[in-house]
């Protein structure tokens, strides 16, 4: 492609709310066969709400929820906000906490009156030597409903299972369909539970799910997809997406996402959803075709 045609193409894209930070991306998009997509905040709203709170026998609901929310009040994760809002919405007072620690990709812990409180994914419970089989049926059901199952332990004893649900953005179904119409394969990459990821993928017709990815695993997943398929685009919004955005042949950031994601990306979508991805690819094909 000539510099002039690239300028015309990127100018046209800008009118459609697709900002090319690198002209090279316009040339690469036309040959892209796979679009890898972050789940939370890209396919979904990134605003989960607490939907279920199931106690183990012998535990008191208010005191467990207050303890869990107190620990989560120090976390930046969207899941944390959902739990804190649920507790404060019930008028619960959150106790003081000490020794807060966030175990990235697993969960959080802190002490309340000298008692250790731990909250997180099943893999966090496994890491601290707890078995979550008690809630196996509930966790499976919630996962299949697209909810994220979490667990709480106090003093090394499992006390509750919690589920949060993050609604899919209104525009996501159409965005995925447009990508399929262009013949692309769509892959979801998520740190979330496998069943949860697969349930959401099923609703959206997403072709492949890479789930339970640890924080630095997204880059590795993109590397593997490149080896397998060739040119890869990656769409994401979060701080934890930046390395994958840089690793992909074309990194595409959601404009309403974090500055760090935007800086790492080659393309920025102004609309706040992924509708622009198919538009950018179609435009890339049209631009490059016109000048060959
Ligand atoms: P994602 O952004 O896809 O959720 P993360 O690596 O941030 O990926 O988190 C992976 C999983 O770790 C979450 O789905 C959740 O189960 C658990 N987790 C992370 N942070 C917290 C937290 N503050 N409270 C409870 N669980 C958490
Ligand atoms: Mg995200």
TrEMBL record:
Record GO biological process: copper ion homeostasis
Keywords: ATP-binding, Cell membrane, Membrane, Metal-binding, Nucleotide-binding, Translocase, Transmembrane, Transmembrane helix
Protein family (similarity comment): Belongs to the cation transport ATPase (P-type) (TC 3.A.3) family. Type IB subfamily.
GO MF entry, a single one: P-type divalent copper transporter activity
Localization in the cell: Cell membrane; Endomembrane system
Name the record gives this protein: Copper-translocating P-type ATPase
Main localisation: membrane
Gene Ontology cellular-component annotations: endomembrane system; plasma membrane
């Amino acid at each position: 492609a000539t510099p002039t045609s690239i300028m015309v193409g990127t100018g046209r894209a800008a009118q459609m709310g697709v900002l090319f930070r690198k002209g090279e991306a316009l040339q690469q998009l036309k040959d892209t066969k796979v679009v890898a997509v972050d789940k939370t905040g890209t396919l979904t709203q990134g605003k989960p709400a607490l939907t279920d709170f199931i106690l183990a026998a012998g535990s008191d609901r208010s005191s467990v929820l207050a303890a869990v929310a107190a620990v989560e009040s120090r976390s930046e994760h969207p899941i944390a906000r959902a739990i804190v809002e649920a507790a404060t919405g019930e008028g619960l007072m959150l106790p003081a906490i000490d020794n807060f620690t966030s175990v990235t990709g697993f969960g959080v812990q802190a002490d309340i009156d000298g008692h250790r409180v731990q909250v997180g994914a099943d893999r966090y419970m496994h890491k601290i030597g707890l078995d979550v089989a008690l809630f196996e049926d509930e966790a499976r059901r919630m996962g299949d409903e697209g909810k994220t199952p979490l667990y709480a332990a106090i003093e090394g004893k499992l006390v509750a299972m919690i589920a949060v649900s993050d609604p899919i953005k209104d525009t996501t179904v159409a965005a995925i369909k447009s990508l399929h119409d262009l013949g692309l394969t769509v892959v979801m990459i998520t740190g979330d539970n496998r069943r949860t990821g697969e349930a959401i993928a099923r609703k959206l017709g997403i072709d492949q799910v890479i789930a339970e990815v640890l924080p630095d695993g997204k880059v590795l997943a993109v590397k593997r997809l490149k080896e397998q398929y060739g040119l890869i685009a990656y769409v994401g919004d979060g701080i934890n997406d930046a390395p994958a955005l840089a690793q992909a042949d074309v990194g595409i950031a959601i404009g309403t996402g974090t500055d760090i994601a935007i800086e790492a990306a080659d393309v920025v979508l102004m609309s706040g959803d992924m509708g622009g991805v198919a538009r950018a690819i179609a435009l890339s094909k049209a631009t490059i075709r016109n000048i060959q």
